[in-house]
Amino acid sequence: MNGAVAFPLDLPELSFLATGDALVRRSVLPSGVRILSEQVPGARSATIGFWVAVGSRDEQPETFGSTHFLEHLLFKGTASRSALDIAVSFDGVGGEHNAMTAKEYTCYYAKVRDRDLLMAVDVLADMFTSSVIDPTDFENERGVILEELAMADDDPTDVTSERFFEAVMGGHPLGRPIGGNPATIRAVTRDAVMRHYRANYRPQDLVITVAGALDHDLIVEAAQRALSAAGWDLATPARPVERRTGGDTVIERGSALSVTRRPIEQANILMGVPALSATDPRRPTLSVLSSILGGGMSSRLFQEVREKRGLAYSVYSFAPSYSDAGVFGLYAGCSPSRVTEVAELLRSEFRRIGADGVTDDELRRAKGQLSGASALALEDSDTRMTRLGRSELTLGEFADLDESLHRLDEVTADGVRELASDLTSRPLSIAAVGAVDESLFAGLEEEPSAA
Question: What is the torsion angle, in degrees rounded to the nearest 10, for the CA atoms of residue 53, residue 59, residue 65 and residue 67?
């Protein structure tokens, strides 16, 4: 493989060898169902995921939280399997199964031995297509989700994260909580969730990705058999749903400062700015920037905040990306009495890279860290399965390890400085949770020219 491989929606079949002689195959069925696999030499297990490109950003006001609600409900049983039957199917073979709801997609997945992979296809297909969403189960699960939200609200890091995204993203749908809130969960109706289910779980929405020990042709046959048995029309031609439009959308800051007072021992601080979309060619540069600033024990933030001053136990940077937007953020947890000092350090180290750049040694170390982490992550079939899903749903192309390392190797110190300068010129938002008040952050959210 030389360079990234494009995934056109109208290409029925595609196959190629990726790093380590992994065979990647992609089939787009006439019904619009897309099936991607990565056969890994020497593997004895596989991870499979059933994806739809529908997340919390796609919900209507009357259905906030319904995507996550539906994710729960698909485990509650079908016409042919009870919730216990689904659980036993995987527990009985030592497998794992779960699901994840994100801002732009939902995925139901399982990890099993190679001998049990076709069983996993059958069970996941049944869950995905044929959930009955029994009214009693619906009400029971409403209570479960309210408890999940309550648990998250008791976790100050979760609360800080939610306030941070609201502050940075403003009224953009990406700023909303994935799980909704207690009021929307109490208000949502079974009919609304059912409409959401029927509108978004169709052949042209479904992407199946599998990585590990597998036979692509057998998976395609098993998937078609299971989907047809569920009553899906696989004979009528349909084009897969279009990917979201790429490129950076305009983000209007929700607030410069969001402080939530809590009588807890530690203050949690997040600060950051709108950043890069998933398809922005500067993503490798942002990864290097994040690594240098807050990506490990040798990073600037770890050294300045923890090692030299002992102000925090946890301090790091992060850079989630979406189809048309992204965020770059810095986190630290510290004593409420040291909040101002820590927040100033986070901001000053961020700005210092934009003003002064990075050293050759920092650049080399960051590339080494990211290269090694990428290679180690691919030892796990879960990571490979997720990479296939993200490639299909968001990126529209597949970059193997060699291509990813090539892109990383092309990052320059000048590129890191220029990107940091760009990001530090954007409106900064700060979110904090703890025994603190707004006065402790006075002036920190101001633009560089006013600082």
Answer: -30
